[in-house]
Automatic annotation (TrEMBL):
Claim: Membrane is one of the keywords in the record: no
Enzyme class: hydrolase
Lineage: Bacteria, Pseudomonadati, Bacteroidota, Cytophagia, Cytophagales
EC number: 3.-.-.-
Designated name of the protein: MBL fold metallo-hydrolase
InterPro entries for the chain: Beta_Casp (IPR022712), MBL (IPR050698), Metallo-B-lactamas (IPR001279), RibonucZ/Hydroxyglut_hydro (IPR036866), RMMBL (IPR011108)
């Protein structure tokens, strides 16, 4: 069989791997949005341009590790290009993917409406959108979700004669899975483990990555944090409590936390609830400013039995995970803008986590020169984003064509990062003995991170470690 790497190759986003079996049965593992895709916008749109580098109609099955858009975001495009099969994933992944894909479709619709018109500027904007190509809409998502089929964790599922898959808890996000794929062809057994995104032990709400991974012939491992270790060694409660004390009580001022709507926001709200419930922390006004975060929070609450033991016990004792005094969910853009009029100490949790668009960008623009404001960065930010610039101490920020001085206090903690660090990745690969595994493929990371992690694996005896280029194929 043949494995081709069509995404997240020597970069972080756009996970997409095509496995072709001996009988020409094709399985696509993940189909994510490539946030780093480079396009030539100088070339005019001339007729139909296929979106994928392979025939979508020839794919037989899609397996989805988890719901994040860099793993799921182009599934509607796959159906638009002619795919007619199913998407297999865990039940929470299907629920979260649905709200994420509908949100992406809504953003696409807004972009198209803003580009309508006869002016040169409007036509140029529309041309750029057409070149980009991934403008699926709500009907496309509706058609897509009707083909999702869910499978519980740790259930070995027969896809067809000679092909089985198992979804194994990966941590990282509600429903996130490692995928174990086994084949039997002409009496020859082969197996592959796709890591998806690897979580970390003792993360708020989530199950730990499984310690029961079977050994496989081949391993596809993400490397987001392949070159680094998490710095903070204290608990999420202690880390967040210290920042709140400095930013909202000692000062007192406002605390802005850029956070992804799905996953990170729920971890923060749950931790705040624990501070107020278990430590007697004085409730401070908390604005959760993201409709998508509100929707995903309800899915987390609904799937409490898919969460870790501590979260389940907290739920039983408090009849909920996230609702606490002074928490306000913000839905409308008007209500979001009105937060600026709130003059008491407060905490604003808003997307996007990298400060690359979204409502949080407006909150930061309104407060970046406020010495009574603290901006707390709690996760990874890609180079070039506003979050990355804040994290690296840039003294001014350009937001909406306005250069603003950074007078607010900027802090960062990494206890809320949903990605496992170098040690967690080594623990994952270490489930497969060097003398047993035939190849380890490194994906989903910046090249520097991959090179570092490859060197460490080789020192530990893994002699066949590959860093595939985009489009590179391997016979397994």
């Amino acid at each position: 069989m043949k494995l081709t790497f069509w995404g997240a190759s020597r970069q972080v986003t756009g996970s997409m791997y095509l496995l072709e079996l001996e009988d020409d049965y094709k399985i696509l593992i993940d189909c994510g949005t490539d946030m780093e895709r480079e396009l030539d916008f100088t070339q005019p749109v001339t007729g139909y341009q296929p979106f994928f580098p392979f025939e979508a109609a020839q794919v037989n099955l899609v397996l989805l590790t988890h719901a994040h858009i860099d793993h799921s975001g182009n599934i509607p495009m796959l159906y638009r290009e002619g795919y007619e099969g199913q998407v297999l994933c865990t039940p929470p992944t299907a629920e979260l993917a649905e709200i994420l894909l509908y949100d992406a479709a809504s953003l696409n619709y807004k972009k198209l409406k803003q580009a309508e018109g006869d002016s040169k500027k409007k036509k140029k904007k529309m041309d750029r959108l057409m070149v980009k190509g991934d403008l699926y809409l709500q009907k496309d998502v509706e058609d897509t979700m009707s083909n999702f089929v869910t499978i519980q964790f740790n259930r070995r599922f027969k896809v067809k004669d000679g092909v089985w898959i198992t979804f194994v808890p990966a941590g990282h996000l509600l429903g996130a899975a490692h995928i174990i794929l086994e084949t039997l062809d002409n009496g020859v057994k082969k197996s592959i483990c796709f890591s998806g995104d690897i979580g970390r032990d003792n993360y708020p709400l989530l199950l730990d990555p499984s310690s029961e991974l079977p050994e496989t012939d081949y391993v596809v491992c993400e490397t987001t944090y392949g070159a680094r270790l998490h710095e903070d060694k204290i608990s999420p409660e202690d880390a967040l409590a210290k920042v709140i004390q400095r930013a909202c009580i000692d000062l007192p001022g406002r605390l802005i936390i850029p956070a992804f709507s799905v996953g990170r926001t729920q971890a923060l709200l749950y931790t705040l609830n624990k501070l107020y419930t278990e430590r007697g922390f004085k409730p401070i006004k908390v604005f959760s400013d993201s409709p998508l975060a509100y929707a995903s929070t309800k899915i987390y609450q609904k799937n409490v039995r898919q969460l870790n033991k501590a979260a389940q016990e907290f739920y039983e004792e408090n009849d909920g995970l996230f609702d606490f005094e002074n928490l306000q969910y913000i839905q409308s853009e008007k209500a979001s803008r009105a937060i600026s009029n709130y003059t008491e100490p407060c905490i604003i949790i808003s997307a996007s986590g990298m400060v690359s668009g979204g409502r949080v960008e407006q909150h930061i623009a309104a407060n970046i020169n406020n010495v009574y404001c603290t901006i707390l960065l709690v996760g990874f930010a890609s180079e070039g984003t506003l979050g990355w610039k804040l994290m690296h101490g840039q003294k001014t920020l350009r937001i909406k064509d306005v250069e603003l001085p950074v007078l607010a206090t900027v802090e960062k903690i990494d206890v809320f990062s949903g990605h496992g660090d170098q040690n967690d990745l080594l623990k994952f690969v270490g489930k497969h003995k060097p003398e047993r595994v035939k190849k380890v493929f490194l994906v989903h990371g910046e090249e520097e991170s991959m090179v570092t992690f490859k060197g460490i694996l080789e020192e530990k005896g893994y002699s066949n470690v590959e860093m595939p280029e985009k489009g590179q194929s391997y016979e397994l």
